Amino acid sequence: METQTQAHNFSLPLDFDNVSTLPDSYAWSTTTLPSNDPCHCTNNDRKSSLPIIDIGDPGAYDLVRHACEKWGAFQVINHGVPLSLFRETELQTRRLFSLPTE
After folding, report:
1. Do residues 64 and 53 make contact, with C-beta atoms less than 8 angstroms apart?
2. CB atoms near residue 63 (< 10 Å)
3. For residue 46, which of 21, 28, 30, 81 is within the disulfide window of CB 3.0 to 4.6 Å?
4. Cα–Cα distances in angstroms (integers) from residue 13 to residues 39, 83, 95, in the given order
5. What per-residue confidence (pLDDT) applies to 70?
6. How far separated are the first and last CA of the chain, in Å rounded?
7. What phi and psi values does residue 32 have, to the nearest 5 degrees?
């Protein structure tokens, strides 16, 4: 019986512990978005920032919808979720994705 090796095409996950800058392949470009895009960014470099939505903003619903349609992702501020919950979620997520695939 002959053993065959299969090639798998997949991307390795970004190693957040050892990467100090965001690789270009992970960055969004805003060149296709209109200049009056209602989702604002944290700095003047709109090419490297996600839309940031203040959940306390009366128009947050529309901003979330817009960010989903135009960007596919966004950051929420003033949500009231404790940092400890974020840390625990990240820990459990890392545990999950470090499990063997089989």
Report:
1. yes
2. 20
3. 30
4. 27, 24, 14
5. 87
6. 23
7. -95, -5
Q: Which two tokens stand for residue 3?
A: 């053993």
Q: How far apart are CA 102 and CA 98, in angstroms?
A: 12
* 7 CB burial (10 A radius; 0-12, 13-18, 19+): exposed
Q: Residue 54, exposed/middle/buried by CB under 10 A (0-12, 13-18, 19+)?
A: middle
Helical H segments across the chain, by residue range: 60-70, 83-97
Chain centroid offset of residue 10 CA: 19
Query: pLDDT of 59-101, one tens digit each?
Result: 999 999 999 998 888 889 999 999 999 999 999 999 999 998 8
By 3-state DSSP, what share of the chain in percent is helix, strand and coil, each rounded to 5? 30, 5, 65
**HSE of 49 in the Cβ direction (CA atoms, 13 Å)?**
12
